[in-house]
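Entry:
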Amino acid sequence: MRNRRLGCFRFAALGLLVLAGCAVLGLAASAALGLPTLAEASLGAPSPRLDVVQRSLLAAYLLARAPSLDAPAGAPDAVIDLEVEEGATAASVIDRLQAAGIVREGFLLRIYLRYRGLDVGVQAGRYALGGSMTVRQIAEALQSARDLEIVFTVPEGWRREEIAAVVPAAGFGFAPEDFLAATSSAVGYPIAVEVPPPASLEGYLFPDTYRLRPDATAAELALAMVENFERRVDPGFRSAYAGRGLTLHEAVTLASIVEREAVVAEERALIASVFLNRLAAGMLLEADPTVQYAFGLQPDGAWWRSPLTLEDLAIDTPYNTYRVPGLPPGPIANPGLSSLQAVAAPAETPYLYFRALCDGSGRHAFAVTFEEHLLNACP
């Protein structure tokens, strides 16, 4: 994130500074001694915003203090994770560094920034700084802010482990194992009263884009996702689920299956109707994603085993809906709002079967009878 640049330092009363320490050199003498060339070699290129007089006066002061530019600027053990907010002044930033012991001579840092033109490069963001750094190093570090927030996007249909796996790349300071531990139980989260123990937060980690501080904990990320679920799955959803004889946990479980089955968005309500019809008829759900969930991580690093074999469909697990009647014990993934809506308001159909079309479109052929279902098989 690159925010608006902060205002540069005012140059008011600079004449007093020069009279106190540099005027004795005299501008003519400065030119004769080759001050501009000497200054650029020692201090770096000056800001093009400075006129000749300003450039000479600042250079004379900095050259006189040159050893202090390359010595530790503050207390060697002082450190700060500095957050500079939008609209903060550069002077206030230096004041905070001085108060934290990172910089002993804030005025020297101000003049160096001004001379180099780096004052206008200080940006809103986060900075990790220490008193063992030199004035030059601090000035350069203030040009590269870390983001004030991490933008973290969770796609629909991911399981907890898939979310945990991308945590390090997002920039958070906690490990995947921390996120799994934080989401292993609903206890302590707002949703706990509606999630039967010992269920995890699978299904309630709402897929969305989140903006959190870089130092956010795994529990804080999980809480943000659960609170988002609570906002989005409002009383209207809960009422619709209850009207179909489903608890919230059952509805989220079914929505997670719909999420993993549906490829084309407009088929979600149709797929939900098939599963609801099968539940009402006392039929097995026979949903491949529940079996895939049970197999977990595959040797190739994938989380969803595909294709499934007849032997796979015989696995002994409560998540095998080819063998165990009704819904599995809990959600198999984290469904998005569209799949949650599909369970709340499914299509009204007589369908009991569906299978993928043979054209690679991701669409499905739906059938009422098993004979029709067999006719929909690929040649």
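Residues 1-33 have pLDDT under 50 and may be disordered.
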